[in-house]
Specification:
Order of helices and strands: HHHHHHHHHHHHHHHHHHH
Structural class: mainly alpha
Shape: globular
Number of strands: 0
Helix content: over 70%
Number of helices: 19
Largest sheet: none
Strand content: under 5%
């Protein structure tokens, strides 16, 4: 009980990070050499569930809100663990139960924007192709459909993480795994790609504008990648999809599943977008 009281007394960010360390560090690794019996998966699940409820009660928050608030951090941490430990996807089953996602399927669906993208990147850059078949089996879908349906999240994940240099390797992997050219895959979700990219306009302006330029080239029929796209052309392109962007932003801001941090980033990026479009209009 003293341990629980200490954990829930921490500041929110510290407490969240402590939860993640408990989630992804295996009991065997923690207890190795201490002469203690390893905790069973059920004991780990109950411990994490109890800590989560104590955390929520201390801050008068529902457990559901706690999950939403830290969803991105939880998912990104779990993905890093799978990659660094070369662990199978099934390792996340206990974490899914502990955080009341009930099943690995529920965790993957809830983490579509935060968990699947780093796993796909690992498939392409870390030789973890086994994760593709495992994730597709859990979600009861085809590997091809999994990659195509979630491409916009994977692409934006790399761009907003400052890893545009890895896009070529991911594109090669996705094209090989699906048997579909990457240009055709990108044409399947253009509005979604614009939306996801603009989420990071405030924090990653240059990379976002460069990637939007790639979409401009795609619309023009695929100009050489090394040919720069003028900013005015990018602005005109985004202006033509502005209604879709604003509708998507309104839905995200009003959704209880959107974290406070995502809402903050979105509002800042929309403000920057308005300045960008307004500045272009004044120059006309």
């Amino acid at each position: 009980m003293l341990l629980c009281d200490w954990l829930v007394a921490l500041e929110e960010e510290e407490s969240a990070r402590m939860f993640q360390s408990v989630l992804y560090e295996t009991p065997e690794a923690q207890l190795q050499g201490r002469g203690a019996a390893p905790l069973s998966p059920d004991q780990v699940r109950r411990l994490l569930g109890g800590l989560q409820r104590l955390y929520a009660q201390r801050r008068a928050q529902a457990c559901g809100r706690l999950r939403r608030r830290h969803r991105a951090f939880v998912c990104e941490t779990l993905a890093r663990h799978l990659v660094s430990e070369a662990a199978p996807l099934s390792r996340l089953t206990a974490a899914a139960a502990a955080w009341e996602w009930r099943s690995l399927d529920g965790l993957l669906r809830a983490g579509r924007r935060h968990l699947l993208p780093p796993l796909v990147v690992a498939m392409a850059t870390e030789g973890r192709a086994d994760l593709l078949d495992a994730a597709a089996a859990v979600l009861k879908t085809k590997p091809k459909d999994l990659l195509i349906d979630n491409y916009q999240f994977v692409m934006s994940h790399l761009v907003l993480a400052g890893r545009r240099a890895d896009l070529s390797r991911v594109h090669a992997f996705v094209a090989s795994a699906t048997g579909v050219q990457i240009q055709e895959i990108r044409r399947c979700s253009v509005q979604g790609q614009v939306n996801e990219l603009l989420l990071g306009l405030h924090s990653c302006r240059d990379d976002v504008i460069r990637e939007l330029g790639c979409l401009v080239r795609l619309e023009r029929g695929g100009e050489p990648a090394d040919q720069p796209v003028p900013l005015d052309d990018v602005i005109r392109y985004v202006s033509g999809r502005l209604l879709g962007v604003l509708g998507w932003a309104d839905t995200k801001l009003g959704s209880p599943s959107t974290s406070d941090e995502e809402k903050r980033r979105l509002l800042l990026s929309i403000a920057d977008l308005c300045q960008l479009l307004g500045g272009a209009a004044q120059m006309v």
